[in-house]
Amino acid sequence: MSEPSKPQGRKFQLPEHLKEYKGIWVIVEQERGSVHSVSWELVGEARKLADKLGVEVGAVVLGADSPELNAICGDAFTYGADVVYKVTDPVLADYRTDPYTRVMTDVVNTYKPEIVLLGATTLGRDLAGAIATTLATGLTADCTELDIYMDNRSLAATRPTFGGTLLCTIQTLAYRPQMATVRPRVMSMPDRDDSRTGRVVEVFPNLRETDVITKVLSFIADREQTEAQLAFADIIVAAGKGLGKPENLKLVFDLAKVLGGEVGVTRPLVQAGWTGFDRQVGQTGKTVRPKLYIAAGISGAIQHRVGMEKSDLILAINTDPNAPIFDFAHLGLVGDALTILPALTDAFGKRLSVNRLAG
Amino acid sequence: MHIVVCIKQVPDSAQIRIHPVTNTIMRQGVPAIINPFDLFSLEEALRIKDKVGARVTVLTMGPPMAETSLRKALSLGADDAVLLTDRKFAGSDTLATSYALTSAIKKLSEEEQVDLVFCGKQTVDGDTAQVGPGIATRLGFQQLTYITKIESIDQGAREIVVHRRSEGGVQVLKTALPCMITMLEGTNTIRFGKMDDMFRAARYGLKTWNKDTTGAEETKVGLKGSPTVVSKVFVPKPRAQKATMVEAETPTAEAQAAAAVDAIFGAQPKLADELLARAAAGL
Ligand SMILES: Cc1cc2nc3c(=O)[nH]c(=O)nc-3n(C[C@H](O)[C@H](O)[C@H](O)COP(=O)(O)OP(=O)(O)OC[C@H]3O[C@@H](n4cnc5c(N)ncnc54)[C@H](O)[C@@H]3O)c2cc1C
Ligand SMILES: Cc1cc2nc3c(=O)[nH]c(=O)nc-3n(C[C@H](O)[C@H](O)[C@H](O)COP(=O)(O)OP(=O)(O)OC[C@H]3O[C@@H](n4cnc5c(N)ncnc54)[C@H](O)[C@@H]3O)c2cc1C
Fold first, then answer.
1. Distances (CA, A) of A233 to A265, A293, B149, B162, B222
2. Which residue on chain A is closest to B272 by alpha carbon?
3. B258 and B127 share one domain
4. Which residues belong to any copy of the Electron transfer flavoprotein alpha/beta-subunit N-terminal domain (chain B) (predicted)?
5. Which residue from A241, A269, A326 has its CB within 8 A of the most atoms of ligand 1, so it is best to mutate?
6. Chain B residue nearest residue A312, CA to CA
7. Residue A293, SS3?
């Protein structure tokens, strides 16, 4: 356990040979030509940090060469990158840990960025842990806040631990690069500036498929599945144990339908088998950032809170006026969700259809 | 086939409290459990043992009291257990932790070649998900994280086929042993131990190793071997403002709902416009 530590024969000074490391990189996560939005959120964040340090933002785009990949490189500039490292090889077409790690290790060692950021996604966490090991450097996981301490120009990465009950700020002082993964939807999406362009550095790693042990046999896209797409929903109606029994979930589905939104739930509902894990919001589920989050019968435990507190507007419905959720929701309604939910469905339905007739 | 399952003893995070004055974690009296995510991996290892035959060794690095977690794993059906414990390991971050655990796995491999290492997806205390990838990289094993299903395992051909969760779907991967696997939660249900395993677990003479037993280098473990420095620990700031309560003239559900819709549209005029536009378009 790393508790806050005092120097005990540890190095806190950056050795001379690591001082040439400059610039902030984001590893752009693309799978089958589509970019995970966390990558652009990170390019936006990297822009702010880089402006503080007076250095460049680099976006690393890896994959098989294609028109889609070129378009992604262009997008990286519009979101704030100064330089794109375009790393292409047919072997990189599908994500696999081993070739991606080998290539990234080489590229980092060649171009020497001082900070490398990745999304805390299945790909980003898989890759970051491997690269930090080959580079023998520090990696701070699942951050929710990034800053630069100007006195020593180091990255201060803040992250929740113990299920969100505590936050801690972690630094990598004597090693480079400083690495961090950041949860999707925690940083805001930067505005596009289509007039922006920059340098492209092309890298051809020259890999051989025969050297790669893991083979992708097939890919079953979620589009062909029925899983909920919570992470990207603009409106979420969420249910907790306060709904009493599984049949009452219909009430949140009805409201979500009128609003064109998705349904989320707390963990106890998933554990009791009311619905699938893909709908769980929170520390061990999805992090969401909708425009509207309606929380019905949810107490507001910290593990749930960390997954939804960045929502633009939170309306909480709870019978208990002292429920913790009222401490951080924007709007609160003390009442029985079982009667309020259908009334809300009606009220929204009327409001929206009145306009339809009028328009 | 020799399978090593890495398990970590963690405080039951549901029962952790923060000291109101010092802002530190109050661990006293908090029960220690096997990291819940590790149980999905342990169960998968035991299923492989049931199906194709294997020797399952559980490994933990931690204080001497972590022995209880190893005995629990033995009672579920693990064959052997190693407790890696040394004050010199204290303060290890994930780079140093994966190094220490790898030194123990290498030593286990000297006794009997390790074919599979299982780790949990992440822990509920440190919660980084970095130790598994660290171990795989150091051992030069293929790395398979977020596995939802082990489709097949062929001992003769030393091949394994798995389903791996990715952001946009599921990758079906085929790879060769040795490899490191982390299972996704909810992929299986942990068994109840058998009576004779429980008796055996209670009496079992588990291995206790330290830094010198595994030959780990002093500069690569503990605080000295950890690049990350925790510079600040604090309790999240509560949001300055509490919720604005929605009040209705009459306390009926209808009146409350109407007031709530007004409040939502009042706070988010843009959202109201979007919804109305969508409704008008017949969506
Ligand atoms: C390691 C770990 C990870 C976890 N991860 C997550 C996670 O990712 N996501 C998550 O959600 N939880 C998670 N939890 C669980 C979390 O700690 C809480 O137990 C959970 O969020 C509580 O769910 P709840 O609010 O639905 O239920 P409860 O806490 O039981 O709250 C029910 C609420 O409903 C109210 N209520 C009752 N009847 C009505 C009614 N008729 N109308 C309106 N309100 C009513 C009650 O006043 C109460 O506030 C995790 C826990 C641990 C230990
Ligand atoms: C507040 C706080 C924040 C921290 N943040 C970071 C950080 O951002 N970066 C960092 O490098 N370190 C961090 N650490 C240190 C880190 O928690 C420890 O190195 C920890 O012992 C291992 O990491 P983890 O618990 O996150 O494990 P994870 O990487 O989440 O664990 C994954 C799996 O690895 C195996 N495993 C992990 N630890 C052990 C063990 N001791 N014995 C056996 N198997 C094990 C288990 O199978 C486990 O399920 C932090 C510590 C604290 C107290």
1. 14, 10, 28, 30, 43
2. A352
3. no
4. 22-218
5. A241
6. B268
7. strand
Q: Determine, yes or no, domain membership for A137.
A: yes
The SS3 of residue B13 is: helix
Query: Can you read off the two tokens belonging to residue A185?
Result: 């939807």
* Strand pairing category for A178-182 and B17-18: unpaired
Chain B residues near residue A313 by CB distance under 8 angstroms: 264, 267-268, 271
- Domain range enclosing B262: 242-283
Query: What's the CA dihedral at B70, B71, B74, B80 to 10 degrees?
Result: 60
Chunk chain A into consecutive blocks of 10 residues (it has 359) and report each block's average pLDDT, rounded to whole numbers: 51 90 97 92 98 98 97 98 98 97 98 98 97 98 95 94 83 97 90 96 96 96 66 91 97 95 95 91 86 96 88 95 94 96 95 63
Q: Tell me the ipTM for this assembly.
A: 0.89
The verdict on B262 and B167 lying in the same domain is no
- Residues B15-25 have pLDDT tens digits of 667 676 666 66
Let me know if residue A95 belongs to a domain: yes
Spatial separation of the C-alpha atoms in residues A306 and A300, rounded to whole Å: 10
- State residue A98's pLDDT score: 98
Contact A183, A287 (CB under 8 A): yes
How many domains, chain B? 2
Range of the domain at A144: 16-224
| Residue A163 contacts residue A122 (beta carbons within 8 Å) | no
A40 torsion bin: left (phi>0), alpha (psi -120 to 50), beta (else)? alpha
Quickly state the pLDDT bin for B274 (edges 50, 70, 90): confident
Are A171 and A239 found together in one domain?
Answer: no
Tokens found for residue A30? 């693309």
Q: Give yes or no for a contact between A316 and A326, defined as CB atoms under 8 angstroms apart.
A: yes
Q: Assess if residue B234 is contained within a domain.
A: no
C-alpha angle with apex B57: B52 to B59, nearest 5 degrees?
145
In eight-state DSSP terms, residue A323 is -
- Confirm if A139 and A56 have CB atoms less than 8 A apart: no
pLDDT for res B24: 66
Q: Which positions 207-246 of A are in contact with B (Cβ < 8 Å)?
A: 213-225, 234
Q: How far apart are CA A294 and CA A237, in angstroms?
A: 5
Contacts of A330 in chain B (CB under 8 A): 243-244, 267
C-beta atoms surrounding A66 within 10 Å: 12
Q: Which residue's entry shows tokens 């090889």?
A: A89
Ligand nearest to the CA of A316: 1
Q: Which residues of A are annotated as a binding site for FAD?
A: 266-267, 280-284, 297-304, 318
Total domain count for chain A?
2
pTM exceeds cut of 0.90: no
Q: Tens of pLDDT along B113-167?
A: 999 999 999 998 888 999 999 999 999 999 999 999 999 999 999 999 999 998 8
One domain for residues B56 and B152: yes
A246, A219: one domain? no
